Amino acid sequence: MHISEGVLPAWEIAVGWGFSSLGLIWGLRKLEGEKLVLTALLTSLFFVASLIHVPVGISSAHLIFNGFLGLLLCEAVFPAIFVGLLLQAILFQFGGLLVLGVNTFNMAFPALLSCLIFRKWIPSEGIKFYAGAFLSAFVAIFGSGLLISLELSLIGERFLTDAGLILLIHLPIATVEGIIYIFLLRFIKKVYPTILEDRE
Question: Which domain CATH number covers 63?
Answer without folding.
Answer: 1.10.1760.20
